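Bench log. Compound arrived from synthesis this morning; before running ITC I wanted a structural hypothesis for how zinc ion sits in the protein. Inputs:
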Amino acid sequence: MSTHPKRYTITAALPYTNGPIHIGHLAGVYVPADIYARYKRLTGNDVAFICGSDEHGVPITIKAKKEGVTPQDIVDKYHAIIKKSFVDFGITFDNYSRTSAKIHHDTAQEFFKTLNDKGEFIEETTEQLYDEEANQFLADRFVTGTCPKCGNEEAYGDQCESCGSSLNATDLINPKSAITGNVPTLKETKHWFLPLDKHEDFLKEWILKGHKKDWKPNVYGQVKSWIDDGLRPRAVTRDLDWGIPVPAPGGEGKVLYVWFDAPIGYISATKEWAAQEGKDWEPYWKDQDTKLVHFIGKDNIVFHCIIFPSMLKAEGSYILPDNVPANEFLNLEGNKLSTSKNWAVWLPDYLEDFPNQQDVLRYALTANAPESKDNDFTWKDFQARNNNELVAIFGNFINRVVVLTNKYYEGVVPKASEFSDIDNEVLAAIKAYPAVIESSIERYRFREASQELMNLARLGNKYLADEEPWKLIKTDEVRTKTIMFVALQIASALATLSEPFLPFTSIKLKKILRIALNNNVISTEGGTTNEESQKWSDISTKDILISSGHQIGKGELLFSKIEDKTIDAQLEKLEASKKANEAANKVIEPQKDLITFEDFTKLDMRVGTILEAEKMPKTKKLLILKVDTGIDTRTIVSGIAESFSPEEVVGKQVTVLVNLAPRKLRGVDSEGMILMTETPEGKLVFVNPDTAVKNGLQIS
Ligand SMILES: [Zn+2]
């Protein structure tokens, strides 16, 4: 691979269409991939940035079964949600396709046929786990059991999420069907296998020798341990009815394994895009002068570094990835992100709760990206990144420059006179920034790159603080003009260099400075002159980025402070998820010992109405209630204060056990008990008649 490839094919892991996108996906894959793609376009490269929905596989069929709909219903729903949220978040895929598209089915089948014709598969009849009751073979997620490598009792038939091992369903100890819970039997079935062992030498040569230096240590290490363990043939077909039919004799009732078809999705999405653009797709996948980069999370390393390259190599006409910069995992508030437990910040929710603040999340996720180890997202850190960096450094600097330029010079960039040593240092520093940021991006160190961008804004702030133009304007107008000219050069550099990281802010800032946007749309709102669009390389080659006499616009705040109450609301949302999980996991108590009818008739339960309520002093849980039981009005102390305020319960009709022997609670006599149960969120609810009835009526 030459250092200046002719074009870039950049892929981002195909999101699985059984739920929306969350911050873990964004931090692990989509934000770094988008930074890279935007940067490559900005530096004048030919880029195809490719993604799409991964719509096959077992979890979708399980979800469809549970919800009583078809798998197609599930994928249609989430494909639309995912696609829209990517657009709204500013992820600039050239094509976001889907694996249920015809072009993909055709491409994947053709790929399979080529390998099959070349004799690259082994056909084998083996015994597979079978659920007699569901009348179905159990592969992948249809079966759970104990991982033979680490002992995790909830490993899936294709992978253990605890240790990352890729598994075959028959490897599991104590397997159980995920459909019926039954212990599966073994039944014979024929499948096609890709003999990975046959590609071991090539993988050793290509990765272990060839990419020892340029692949991330976490990726290289995982691949090495895989290869060192010895590779085995992997089935590329499944007994399923949802997926791409196997195009070979004996393939009836079988589909391509989702991990065989999904990466081919990158190819079919490129084909689809090229057809729309009137381009030839093949150079993007077959020309040695194309740089192919796969952005993925660490759970996908084996598929992108071992299985897919073996497929490409076996096919023979494709290039191999130049790099696979996989990230580690992002946790949320100290716990593992989980779709099923709803422990996540969902992108559609974020976009709704934080309108026009896409860049804040992009920045927080990049500045804290799990590039070399797992990392934790906290709302407090998110708030601090916004308030202390975006607002206090970047936003503050731009605001000062724009406000002062408007105040002193009616928005016209002033003329510089002689530059001081400090001015020259600052101007030289600006020119050095593109190379510094570039070097980080080229090594896939996006958090470092984003910090360098912030350092340029820091430099601007420090320059203004040291030079104090707001003081100097009273004594030295000539010097003040030079200072403001220099500050405007920094602002102008920030407008372009921020584009990969803070794309929405970059556009806002270019509009304020009246620099033409990249797509050559010139912002002319009220302006008379316009700076031409600025290239990334201009920052290091041009002496003047924004010239004297150029009219800039009025200020507009780029970022605004995020208050504690906004963060608290998000933390409360998570707290509610946690409670709901706890409630969902609550064990249903076994039935108590039998009682006789006579025992039951000893309980005297009546309908009553709460007349008064007050909090028991110095307690959290207790309310003192006055209840009309139809027999009398009495005092009952009830442990419901965490679920209800006193005002909420007054007037409520409830069920009262009236003949419970009185008890003293905190010095108050309690004569009876109010019957309650609990919602999934852990909130208490009254057990009461669903229409108003007369107090004192018996419940029997
Ligand atoms: Zn394991």
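What the model suggests: Confidence is low (pLDDT under 50) at residues 520-529. The chain is about 40% helix and 15% strand.
ITC booked for Thursday regardless.
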